[in-house]
Inverse folding.
């Protein structure tokens, strides 16, 4: 087994991309106790939006904001259409609705793209090849962890220091009481989905700049791995999701470094999920919920 | 012509998009050739990532890579891609002309073909497969599945991709030549290299 800097860089980059998606999962779960299975597919749709926008030859600094706006709008609409009407329904119903939205997005993408892989446009400067300490890689591999850490810091500041952040923390602690205290639940939930979708859009820019091909199921596996990362780090905790994602990204690529075990790289992630749920279900940074009688 | 050498295997799980580690492993092992008989979905990613890493090894594949997706993925990049395929444009001018006319007659056909009117081997082979079935039906004289099965063994005609005949033991196709094509990264087109026989 020959682990080189190449593998570690690839692992850190993959971890960063999973982290951006995992934050979306963990935030929505923290507030709504809902596993938003459609999140991975929102990530894929963001990639498709970029493919189609750049096909109409708009300059890059116009297409990137359009992608971010479009994804945010999509996340907002999904919440309003598929999750809001089910707020008083049993938790299983909302989860089924999320799975339904996921399939809807995948099949819509299949219908629109015709199933053929769409090449993702190369964003200048980010997609260039650079050499670091003898390892040839793309610039985006090095930029990803920096961008992720930056966004996470901004997000944690937002949650700790702003009013809307305080509202989000209150709602995740106790849904009904926050409503009684006068917090506008709809705004808080919409802001959560908006932030999550924004991060997923940034994640898709970085991910598809590394792996420049979009098919309708491109979002399924990264979304699933990001979900495992969120659970591993403690679902509901943002730093936990980020740490979990980096650990999964790095371990996955270290396994790929060995030629015999490389086929088990995905199996490792899902085995980790099972082990975490058996050994420490609240995850690395999760809090034990104490039910006072 | 070089013979001998070492073969290293690698497997990837379904829906992988990140081939960087596999390419790194191949580079570290000193591979001269990376043989990647994958579908075009993965091929696009492999070609793109191999060129980003500046891989010097030749990428080789079977006829699944004979498609416009590979040409557009490799255009303008520094990669050496060779594929073996069963049909080369120009092998049957009448078929080429007719097929291109059909493609250009409807924009949906062009899109399904990958955006332009290049003829990939799988289109020609699909055409031949259809006519093989038709031949079998003619020989059988009936549409009962058992009769058609019997008649398939006796099919013997010249299709677009060459002689179509099956051997008596297993029903394997008797086909001893393939064509090797290389990607011309400047013109984004296939260049014919040679015919490769089994001897």
């Amino acid at each position: 087994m020959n682990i080189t800097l190449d593998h570690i860089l690839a692992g850190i980059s993959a971890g960063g991309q999973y982290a951006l998606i995992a934050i979306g999962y963990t935030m929505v779960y923290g507030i709504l106790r809902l596993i938003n299975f459609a999140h991975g597919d929102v990530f894929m749709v963001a990639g498709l939006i970029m493919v189609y926008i750049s096909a109409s030859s708009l300059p890059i600094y116009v297409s990137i904001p359009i992608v971010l706006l479009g994804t945010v709008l999509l996340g907002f609409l999904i919440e309003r259409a598929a999750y809001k009407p089910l707020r008083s329904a049993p938790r299983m119903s909302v989860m089924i609705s999320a799975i339904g939205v996921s399939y809807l997005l995948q099949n819509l993408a299949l219908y629109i793209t015709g199933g053929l892989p769409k090449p993702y446009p190369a964003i200048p400067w980010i997609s260039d090849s650079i050499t670091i300490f003898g390892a040839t890689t793309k610039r985006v591999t090095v930029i990803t962890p920096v961008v992720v850490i930056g966004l996470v810091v901004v997000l944690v500041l937002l949650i700790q220091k702003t009013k809307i952040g305080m509202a989000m923390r209150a709602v995740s602690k106790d849904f009904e009481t926050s409503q009684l205290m006068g917090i506008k639940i709809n705004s808080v939930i919409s802001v959560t989905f908006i932030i999550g979708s924004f991060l997923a859009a940034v994640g898709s820019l970085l991910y598809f700049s590394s792996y420049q091909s979009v098919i309708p199921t491109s979002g399924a596996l990264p979304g699933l791995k990001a979900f495992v990362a969120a659970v591993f780090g403690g679902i509901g905790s943002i730093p936990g999701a980020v740490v979990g994602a980096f650990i999964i990204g790095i371990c996955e690529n270290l396994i790929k470094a060995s030629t015999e075990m490389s086929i088990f790289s995905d199996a490792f992630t899902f085995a980790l999920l099972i082990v975490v749920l058996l050994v420490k279900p609240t995850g690395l940074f999760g809090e034990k919920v104490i039910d006072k009688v | 012509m070089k013979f001998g050498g070492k073969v290293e295997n690698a497997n990837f799980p379904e829906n992988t998009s990140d081939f960087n580690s596999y390419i790194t492993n191949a580079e570290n092992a000193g591979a001269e050739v990376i043989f990647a008989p994958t579908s075009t979905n993965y091929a696009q990613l492999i070609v793109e990532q191999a060129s980003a890493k500046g891989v010097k090894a030749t990428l080789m594949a079977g006829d699944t890579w004979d498609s416009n997706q590979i040409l557009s993925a490799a255009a303008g990049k520094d990669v050496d891609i060779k594929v073996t395929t069963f049909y080369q444009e120009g092998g049957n001018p009448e078929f080429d002309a007719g097929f291109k006319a059909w493609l250009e007659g409807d924009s949906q056909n062009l899109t399904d073909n990958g955006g332009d009117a290049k003829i990939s081997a799988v289109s020609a082979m699909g055409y031949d497969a259809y006519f093989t079935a038709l031949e079998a039906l003619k020989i059988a004289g009936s549409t009962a599945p058992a009769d058609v099965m019997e008649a398939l063994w006796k099919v013997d005609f010249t299709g677009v991709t060459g002689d179509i005949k099956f051997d008596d033991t297993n029903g394997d196709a008797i086909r001893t030549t393939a064509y090797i094509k290389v990607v011309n990264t400047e013109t984004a087109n296939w260049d014919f290299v040679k015919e490769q026989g089994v001897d």
Remarks:
- Helices of chain B lie at 20-28, 40-52, 68-74, 93-105, 107-112, 121-140, 145-152.
- Residues 93-165 of chain B form one domain.
- The radius of gyration of chain B is 19 Å.
